[in-house]
Each structure stands twice: as structure tokens, then as C-alpha cells.
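pasting for ref. prot 1 ->
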Amino acid sequence: VHVEESGGGLVQAGGSLRLSCVASGATFRSLTMGWFRQAPGKERERVGTISWSGELTYLADSVKGRFIVSGGGAGSPLYLHMNNLKPEDSAVYYCYADSDRRYWGQGTQVTVSS
């Protein structure tokens, strides 16, 4: 399974970005997918998860009301809509897909300037 993210970049505080993730090569079309992020010197933090049926099963408290996880499920791209971004949201964002094991993308950098 190959997982690939796109859409990162530099944005000012209060701005928005949308990250996309595509998982290809899986035996099953429906995969549980989600997002993690990791800032320098910090542990990797789970941001959100969409189940294989397309249901949001997790959203971190730190992003509730600002981030939306959508898509995923039956062979569809997964999205992370990030609104009202804060400097503390700056991190490398990783997409993952669960099949026979967890597969990770290479990550995409999000930098929020104050």
C-alpha cells in the first residue's frame, strides 16, 4: 500500500490549508485512515481518524472546532481541512492507512507564521 500526502505549505496565523491523502495498492478498498502530526522535539500526535466505513472515530481536542477530517472510507481520498491555524499547529503532518498493517506517507510540512 502506498500512501501519499499533499497540500502542506506556509500560511499566516488564522489562515486555512487543506491536506489530501491517497492510499493506493490495497487489497481492500475500504481502509481506516487518519492523520498524525509531529512538531520538532515533540511526540507524534494523532489528529483524526476516519473508519473504513467513512465514520469519524477520533478528533484531537486541540483541533476541535478548527479542523475537519473528511473523505476516506471506500477508496476515496482523505482530507484534512485546517481552519483558523495557529503557530502551534506547525508540524509535519502524516497520513496513514490501516490494511494488513499500518502504512505511512512521507509527511507534508505545515508552517504557520505568527
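and prot 2 ->
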Amino acid sequence: QVQLVESGGGLVQAGGSLRLSCAASGRTFSSSSRMGWFRQAPGKEREFVASIRWSDTTAYADSVKGRFTISRDSAKNTVYLQMNSLKPEDTAVYYCAGGNTWGYWGQGTQVTVSS
């Protein structure tokens, strides 16, 4: 059974930075697998933020390009999301997800950006 555990959320002022971590346990992801981040703001649908394959191919939502960076540490089976220049509209619960069909999900971590 795969488990994804997020950490690193919190409260930050606009313009600040946070780094989210997602530790995967229970299996080793292959080079064709992917992990990523989604977010859900109050009253809105969950949306894609960023993804990375174990081959290091990355993808980003247009709203975060140039501000967020996804990376991985294969030795630790951990994926990170470095979030810079945060905006109030980035406020959401951030979820880690894994697998080619996003079949694995973490419990979420709250990110709040104050203006």
C-alpha cells in the first residue's frame, strides 16, 4: 500500500516562500511514474499545480510557472514543491499525488498566504 505524507504548509505573507515535502512509502516509483501537487481553494475544484516524473520531466500550471519549482530526491522517495513569490490566491489545501493515473493521494497540507 502506498502512503504519501505531506509536510511544510503554513501561514506566510504575500511575497514569501514555503517548501512543501511529500514522502512516499510502500513502493519505489519507476522512471515512468510521476508524482505531483494539486491544490484546492475553498469553494473551488481541485486543480493541478505541478508534476515530475522520475525521469525528471516536469510540468506546471500556468498560474505558478516561474514561481514554483518541483523537484525530487529519489534516495528519500520524496518530492518537493518550492513556492516563491506567493500570492493570496495561492491559498489552498495542497495535496501530493502519485502514479500515472494519480491513484495515490496524501492527506493535504494547508497553505495560507496573507495580503
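The radius of gyration is 13 Å.
The longest strand covers residues 18-25.
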